[in-house]
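Action item from last week, closing it out:
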Amino acid sequence: MTTPDQTQFHFYNYCHIGDNILNLKFFLYISRILKKQHIKINYYYNTEWPYNKLDTLMAYVDPDIVTLKSMKERPSNAILLWMGNSIKGIDYFNFEHYFELFYANILKHMMIVEPSIVPSLWLEEPFLDTVYETLDSKYKDIDILILNNTGSSGQYNNNSPLLELTKHLHNRFNIVSSVYINDDIKTATNLSLIQIGAISTHTKYIISTWSSPNVPCMNNAAKTNVRHWFFVTDMKITFTSIKCTYANNATMNNIKDFFDALTLL
């Protein structure tokens, strides 16, 4: 409930879970400032999309600040938060720079000027430390986090070569796979997205398709600690502040050769 001294803002996104987490992560990051300035946010999302699960989204919500609502309740003055719209000629393929501008626009819309806020894709998310501590020990100190699922928006439809790579890497490294392969390989199918994000803060390497499970991994701790990222996609996504390699099914052996050549972790 909004009190008389609070200012309400209405934002929405009609797309998938990754888009919503990118938005909600930022509201959680600035929640201290929002409380200080008596700002309340109503956030409307597509409840009919099966992966937009309420408990998944609520993991990135401060309920004192953000109220989640169905798109059916969206008022006409709600602001769309969607990466499909370019900003100052920059589109989301330039992912890091785009989200600096994207988050800055949210602040501008709410007329927030606060030097302590750093609008960055790689947000400080100290709550992931607590999540990490509660994980089963088998998910800690992972060598390679492999997010090998297919995307739900046509980003990556055939993950068979990546599953074969996962089996190969399992022979030498301590890995976690987001897709169940067999009983010998640790799987994250029973974990939440925020728990996958927590694993990312301590893993040495990440191999990921361009899909929603990589969004929780885009945090400041992972940016600092992950030695090398491998993005498996045909999309022309670019990063400039992390060590990364882009691959697709045709160039999957480049990832295999990288890890085969490693002698020490």
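Closing note: The CA atoms of residues 155 and 210 lie 6 Å apart.
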